[in-house]
Task: structure prediction
Amino acid sequence: MSRPNIRDAKCVLVIGATAGIGRALALAIHDLPSKPTVIVAGRRQERLDELTKTSDRIVGIRVDVTMDRAALKDFAESVVSQYPNLDAVLFSSGVQHVFKLDQPEHMNWNLFESELTTNYTSVVALINFFLPHLMELASTGHPTFLIPITSSLSVVPGQWVPYYSASKAALHSLCLSLVVQLKNTNVIVMEILPPLVESELHDHQGNRERLSKIWMPLDEFAKAAMEGLCRGDAEIPVGYCVSKWERHEKGKLEEMCKGPSSR
Ligand SMILES: NC(=O)c1ccc[n+]([C@@H]2O[C@H](COP(=O)([O-])OP(=O)(O)OC[C@H]3O[C@@H](n4cnc5c(N)ncnc54)[C@H](OP(=O)(O)O)[C@@H]3O)[C@@H](O)[C@H]2O)c1
Result:
């Protein structure tokens, strides 16, 4: 019997769907034979409009995940009341900044805090706010899904983006705990760990041309990530992240499942 997987989903919210990985996965999920409704979310309204124009099954909701916790709770509750069949949430919103740790006098605390909020604390809050609904639906026998996106840099940090790597390592650790704590709930956690992928993430760092020679093309990435989502894998490393995951992460989840007394 196959594990619950993305093909079981009927209504998928993709947060961070206006560009890159989120946009590609939103479109790939939309194209599944199961014909789910896809709710695309992000800050740029014109990008949401461009997506919603392409299909009656794509709807857009504007959101900035750096808004305060009460507003994030209102957002989650409003999505659930508008779409009571929501059964999957994919978290693709993310930003990445270069910091020089050897130049402490140039620390930009605002940038640090917005990176941490976007990549980690907003995901913690949103998971908390969506879980009551997802757990209730799951308890009726319909599997539901949490799909966070971490990074190969959550496994081996990129020292040039130290706080980004730390935010993704925190999210990766949380994903493992979620898998274990939710294992009897029918809420399925599937973490995607991308390698360097074609997107807009690094554009503001001014190195698009250099990175474009080495990144994984977006369509190739989306195909591999969708294969993992269609298998229902708890961890979906893609591209060169597979060997990093095998070297540093393989077996961790199994060890956690044995419980603290076995360690
Ligand atoms: N590309 C890579 O090499 C790579 C590798 C590993 C992991 N990842 C991860 O993959 C995810 C997607 O990144 P990407 O590469 O596709 O980057 P991207 O092309 O820059 O897309 C980032 C998405 O995040 C959204 N976003 C950013 N800040 C937001 C905010 N405050 N509120 C709501 N949405 C926000 C953006 O939408 P708006 O600007 O419209 O709000 C956009 O849709 C991120 O979590 C990233 O860390 C990427």
In short: The first strand starts at residue 11 and ends at 15. Residues 6-262 form a domain with the Rossmann fold fold (CATH 3.40.50.720).
